[in-house]
Amino acid sequence: MPRYETVIGLEVHVELKTRTKIFCDSTTEFGGEPNTHVCPICLGLPGTLPVINKKVVEYAIRAALALNCNIAEFTKFDRKNYFYPDMPKNYQISQHDLPIATHGYLEIDTQKGPKKIGISRLHMEEDSGKLVHQGTITTTPFSLVDYNRAGVPLIEIVSAPDLSSPEEACQYVEKLRTIILYTGVSDCKMEEGSLRCDANISVRPVGTGRLGTNTEIKNLNSLKALRRSLHFETERQIEVLRAGGRIVQETRTWDEGKGETLPLRSKEQAHDYRCLPEPDLVPLLIDRQWVEDIRGSLPELPEQRRQRYIKDYSLPEYDAAILTNTKELADYFERCVRAYSHPKAVGNWILGEFNRLLNLHGIEIAACKVTPQNLVSLLRLIDQGTISGKIAKVVFAEMFTSGQAAEAIVKKKGLVQISDRHAMVPVVEKVLAGNPGAVADYKAGKGRALGFLVGQVMKATQGQANPELVNKLLKERL
Amino acid sequence: MITKKDLEHVALLSRLELTGSEKAMFARQLNDILNYFQSLDCLDTENVQPTTHVLPLQNVFREDWVGQHTSRQDALANCPDRQGDYFRVPKIV
Ligand SMILES: [Zn+2]
After folding, report:
1. How distant is the Cα of A89 from the closest Cα of chain B, in angstroms?
2. The pTM is what?
3. Contacting residues of A for B85, CB less than 8 Å apart
4. Could you give the CA distance from residue A1 to residue B39 in angstroms, rounded to a whole number?
5. Which CATH code is given to the segment(s) A421-477?
């Protein structure tokens, strides 16, 4: 029986973070009362004319450059006709044959090393309105329509069929999301629908050059849904082929509850969009100087940043990858490193206690009360021996909730490390007197007993004893 | 040449239900229209640049500033059917 390989291409829609819609000055704000963020243009009233929002073009170029695309010199809009009431005009304004950007790529990590995933095209289009159904969709004869979202700007990013597994597909989406977030053109929230994903998938016997017949999966609103649906669809297609069947080219929808992909009714996929150039919008000639200005304004992108952290800061790959995962975290890290030149120690704190508390309390880094300066002061207190690493965690937790400076907390709570020999000797002697068994063990060559005794001294001083001093004092007496 | 099959396909895409005699009539009329446009094929376009728009204009932009919204009352005023704050339409599946 032949072994099969999977071929996947993704279409990702990203909502742009402009103030106004793509072709009119209605707000893009999320969550308004139904049909209040509308005007005659996005309601498709006769006699109105769309005009392109310059910011949308700028953002599309910005995202495209970050994805290594070529920016077209000439681009235009087209009407995509379809019969569905989520658009009041019965067509969507999109870009068909002359998109604003083509020929890009991004890199994912595979077991065989980095792999380039082609981006065939990136184009601008308008989002649709939202249909609401009362009761169940099967019983109600009506759809209720809210046009607040109609006309919100989108970019659609189409990958080449270069992805070979559900895992690669998920990684592609994660990388894409990180890059777009760095550019600042979208907030890419899958759960709120500002990043949406459709997948094209086919299988073929290993070694065949030709692509198999593909199916398209829609309704993938989380990475989990993407991964699960692609696994399901791979197995389903292989099963059909092994049984001597034929794959039908069709659109399928992911049913999260059932955990399977189901075909949409053929009527729904009668997509013959009859694209035609949009006569209400004039073409765009994209000025090269504009493109270069936008390129110049791009921040350092995650991949370059990660490489720099490994090279300049000698961070392990894993640490560098996580620290650069969001621009906010990487910026925070760098502000610390600028004030305190031990990148590894800063990295450890950020990836350890800092991240742990952020996750625990569900706080975004922008809302965190610990400033980079305060974190650095804490690290200095450890270096100076004022507090132990263990106490530092206690202090940090307090900084995290109160926003106070490290020094103030140490002083207020009397957490200063005890490094005074005279103060420590009585404590050490008391612990030795109280634990004759451990002392005997140590003398009999059981090194582990020393750790136990150190622990007892730490306990007696609520963790404030300087561990090096404790070790030294114990050894002198044993 | 628009065949009966083409016509039925276009009618399906437009959700139009046509009788047999209507189909014959519209197929004939559409073919007449296409034939008329075919007279353009006689023109020599050897040295004419392909065009995507009839106006000699490019780059008409607007700035990203929020303007006046239509009140919901006005937005829904002319719709044939509504329910609460929504437009109500026949369900399409
Ligand atoms: Zn509008």
Report:
1. 13
2. 0.82
3. 33-35, 146
4. 59
5. 1.10.10.410
